[in-house]
Specification:
By secondary structure, the protein is mainly alpha-helical. The chain has one domain.
Length: about 130
């Protein structure tokens, strides 16, 4: 009985198709995450970029570029400055401390739209 169940499951696995994999072209898959980031950012970040959003975007960018052998200087500056904003914002959030409006104005380059565009640049140009 157990063997029959295993055989049926194997047959089912062979018949099942992963729809996403069969519908989306492979060269487009790598762009989906940055495009989602840009879309969500355009919809959600209308008035300001939150501290946790900044933290998540900077973390994603640093993880993405971590394995690159050669990174343009402007991206290195962008990533390094972003770490400051991310850590400072995260600590203030955890400690429930408000930040001056200047923080939110200065961290705009780490909004989801810009972060997504930098990811696309990394995927397509570098």
């Amino acid at each position: 009985m157990h063997e029959r169940l295993e055989q049926d499951l194997e047959q089912l696995k062979l018949k099942m198709t992963y729809w996403f994999q069969s519908i989306v072209p492979l060269k487009f898959v790598s762009l989906l995450a940055p495009l989602a980031l840009i879309s969500i950012g355009a919809y959600v970040e209308k008035h300001f970029v939150g501290r946790i959003t900044t933290f998540a975007n900077v973390l994603a960018l640093n993880i993405f570029f971590f394995s690159f052998q050669s990174i343009p200087t402007w991206i290195i500056w962008y990533l390094n400055i972003g770490i400051f904003f991310a850590v400072f914002g995260f600590i203030s959030y955890v400690m429930k401390e408000s930040l001056p409006q200047a923080y939110y104005s200065l961290n705009l380059p780490y909004c989801s739209i810009v972060s997504g565009l930098v990811l696309i640049y990394g995927l397509t140009v570098l």
